Amino acid sequence: MTTRRRVLWIGFSLVIALGAGVVIGRGLGVPTNKAERSPGENDRAFAAAFPASYADEQQRDSIAASVSSSRRNAITQAVGRASGAVVGINVVELRRYRQWSPWGDDPFFRQFFGDRTYTQRVQGLGSGFLISADGYVLTNDHVAGNAKEITITMTDGKTYDAKLVGTDQVSDVALLKIEGSGLPYLRLGNSDDVIIGEWVIALGNPFGLFQINDKPTVTVGVVSNADVNLRGGEQSDERIYRGMIQTDAAINSGNSGGPLLNTLGEVIGVNSVIYSPNQGNIGLGFAIPVNRVKRVVTELKANGKVDRDYWVGMQVQSVDQRIAQYFKLDKAEGVIVTEVERGGPAEKAGFRAEDIIIEANGERIYDDASLYGIVYDAHVGDTIPIRVIRGGDTRTLSLTLKRKTT
């Protein structure tokens, strides 16, 4: 074959190959013109090539729709409905400080140098949300419980002076009131219906950002755990955080008092506690369950406080290894009754010294802090079933909390 023929033959082969490639490319490739592209075209080709390992188009559409049918999904709709009822809270507290003295707080030297104390106005901020059209606002006690001045900022930019209706340090719930009518408000849901792993939404005023644009900040996560009791160093001496909802939705300083919503836009908790070495979010946040809040709000509306003016009538201490060994217990867990007051509620319930309390109100007792948490969460007149070990036998006693008498 001559050189000229060889060149012509190679050229002809290339033209044929190129034409075939174009045809195949149009059938299987991705169109470069967006107007020519039909939804699912590539997927159908892929499914035809691998029918045994690929779901059909209907199944895939169903799976995709279950995740998010559009940008305006359940979460964005819940945020849209709820945002108008979330408020920023600015407070002013009067705090008393004592000046440093080389003599400390010795009263002998105080008579010469005077009571070297001073009062200072301290500003704080937090979050809250409306729960009624006539202006009741929920927040945390640690946000507004000691405030002398409270200012509420709405999403429309309006500000209101608020009054403190009532507050409860133990549950960390405060109820405020602003004057108004026809205000947006949030529906309180059912925290007993919370599902671990379900989507939740936290709204609030972290780091005062609400004051910049009159809008709450939105973070999204899941319910990480439920019915969590925080004990010991995880709570203050005055506050008892019980049955808490744990979430990984970002909660930062200033989010306290804001609502935790489900995807229906219902309040399931009040954001209150974060675990953080530097006051920033690390994915460990806790909200007070709304069913507990409802009971507190009812009492705050009626009385301005929760009636905990009761007495138990016994002294207890945590079971340590020495006590556990002496009473032949399997582990150093529970509390031991060390003293029972004559004529008190504990004596009337049948308690005796050396009773080992292992359960109260259906909850396991690990130490005195877990027992105190249950008792402090109760009210005058409540009856708490308590299981004790006495002489190797287990029995249940009913402790009714009585009002203190002078």
Structure, explained:
- By secondary structure, the chain is α+β, with helices and mostly antiparallel strands.
- It folds into four domains: 3-67, no CATH class; 81-177, Beta Barrel (Thrombin, subunit H); 191-303, Thrombin, subunit H (Beta Barrel); 310-403, Roll (Pdz3 Domain).
- It is built from eleven helices and 21 strands.
- The model is unreliable at 20-55, 60-67 and 232-236 (pLDDT under 50).
Span between termini: 124 Å
Taking strands numbered 1, 2, ... along the chain, how are they ordered across the largest sheet? Answer: 5-4-1-2-3-7-6
What is the CA-atom radius of gyration, in angstroms? 32 Å
CATH superfamily heading of the largest domain: Trypsin-like serine proteases
* Estimated helix fraction: 25-40%
CATH topology of the largest domain: Thrombin, subunit H
Structural class: alpha+beta
- Overall pLDDT, averaged? 79
Number of domains: 4
Number of strand segments: 21
Q: What proportion strand? A: 25-35%
Instruction: Give the overall shape, derived from the CA principal axes.
Output: elongated
Number of helices: 11
CATH top-level class of the largest domain: Mainly Beta
Which regions have little confidence, pLDDT < 50, spanning 5+ residues? 20-55, 60-67, 232-236
Q: Which architecture name of the largest domain does CATH use? A: Beta Barrel
Major sheet: 7 strands, antiparallel
